[in-house]
Amino acid sequence: MLSPVFFIPFQQELKKPYFLNLASYLAVRSLGEVGNQEVLDLCAAPGGKTLVLASSLGPEGFIVANERSSARRSRLKRVLEEYLSPEKLSRIKITGHDAGRWGLYEQDRYDLILLDVPCSSERHLLERPSHLKKWSTNRTRQLAQQAYAMVLSALMALKPGGKLLYCTCALSPLENDGVMERVWRKKGKEVKILPIEIQDPQVVVEPTKFGVQILPDLSHGAGPLYLSLLTKQGPNRVDQEERFG
Fold first, then answer.
1. Rounded Cα–Cα distance for residues 92 and 73 (Å)
2. pTM for this structure?
3. pLDDT attached to residue 239
4. Which CATH number goes with the domain that contains 26?
5. 24 near 41, Cβ under 8 Å?
6. Nearest Cα residue to 102 out of 186, 41, 54, 185
7. Is residue 125 predicted with pLDDT exceeding 60?
8. Would the N or C end of the chain have less CB density within 10 A of its end CB?
9. pLDDT value of residue 221
10. Nearest CA to 112 among 182, 24, 42, 7?
């Protein structure tokens, strides 16, 4: 993880190139074209993934870009204004709510939800020794619990048949498959794990029990990134599976 990050200059539908980790770009692209769907980016700052979402936004599509931290939300706003056209910006709403409580206020609303949760981000810790000194083993447990609450909240906001992409830049199994395993235990009859399609010769995509991961030592510096893709089944589908399963 001490090797250089594999940044790409992404510019599709942007006013100028935005440099982001190749793994982050591929993660968003795994959701497919946004088109005219309603999208929720629950932890959107600093904004790179939101830009990729916006690049395929159709004329009737809409994105809610949420970031609870006021400082990070200000940065998100600056990035979107700097790189997107006024026409694209007019169909993006920036909010500052608690992602872990979102589903209490909106249910069955969004076609696509991107949930890039706050995580251990070990690569950043190695790059910043002052942050590493403050680290504790309890921190990853706290982050995993927070992520679990966010996934449950996001599932409430997701339409039946919609897609939820959970991702972290952590190596911690507790924050990756560990979170998804807890979700599966609680919501297994209501959700389905979907395959993630990433085909890029520059990266190695390793399967895990509930998703995939991209590790920088195998992918020329791309990542680390963990991804898990879920869909929410409608009530009729759940009832049928309970009756005939």
1. 13
2. 0.91
3. 43
4. 3.40.50.150
5. no
6. 41
7. no
8. C
9. 87
10. 42
